[in-house]
Amino acid sequence: MPELPxxxxxxxxxxxxxxxxKVQSVHIYHPRLRWPxxxxxxxILKNKEIKGLWRRGKYxxxxxxxxxxxxxxxxxxxxxxxxxxxxxxxHDHFELRMDECYLRLNDTRRFGAVLWTDKAVEIHPLxxxxxxxxxxxxxxxxxxxxxxxxxxxxxxxxxxxxxxxVGVGNIYANEALFDARIHPLTPAGxxxxxxxxxxxxxxxxxxxxxxxxxxxxIRSFANSEGKPGYFAQxxxxxxxxxxxxxxxxxxxxxxxxxxxxxxxCITCQAEV
DNA sequence: CGAACGACCTGCAGGC
DNA sequence: TGCCTGCAGGTCGTTC
Length: 272
Description:
Elements: H1 4-18, E1 25-28, H2 41-45, E2 52-56, E3 59-64, E4 67-72, E5 77-82, E6 92-97, E7 102-107, E8 113-117, H3 125-128, H4 141-148, H5 155-159, H6 170-179, H7 193-214, H8 218-223, E9 253-257, E10 260-264
Helix pairs in contact: 1-7, 4-7, 6-7
This protein binds a DNA duplex through α6.
């Protein structure tokens, strides 16, 4: 479920239930995720207060006084806030219990992660090399222009590289490139400055709107109906192969880039 | 150093 | 009905 807007939505959804709360117990039901869930979590988190909760890229970070819990949802992770007693389901991996409710992580494909660090989060190996947050000023046309020079990797692949900018996954990379009218195969270094401006703006706009529409799902997280997704979302290219471009009616084309579905309009996103 | 690619998993849809 | 293939919103580690 994760692209940045979904993770941000989860973060906002769980925040009222976590922030300032004391962990009552931790349960590891199925430790095998991308990396094993550290077995010592139950003992070191018991009775500790969640002092902070934030997002970096697609990582959720639970800050404690003596360290931080890093959580990634991978491809299929779902984090629910539960209050009543819910029977354990297939692929439930991890649970953080507070006094009034608990968080339960379900992850079918096990690409997600639950990790612990007792050092500053910013220097954690998975965090330290991450690029800027797409919604902050640090991600701007100057940065992108500079960064892409001499790079021949297709711009779409480049945009999805977390070392360049975090949080732009396959769906929104497709959408942003359509918005900026840039062909996904364009070598990154061939993008003009003005195209960088458009692309940066497109990324910001699309992610912001997705977060806004994702906001309406917060209740479902809280209630556990948890249907995370892209419903309220009007995707213009992703998943619309062969359907008419909303701009010019040309049937959209799909190709594979790095094994990922890449959909675009050959008219609106003409090759350079 | 950058770039390409395989690897990690399960479940589902579609073709035969 | 069942088997097979390919595909799914991610990203790390290895190799070149």
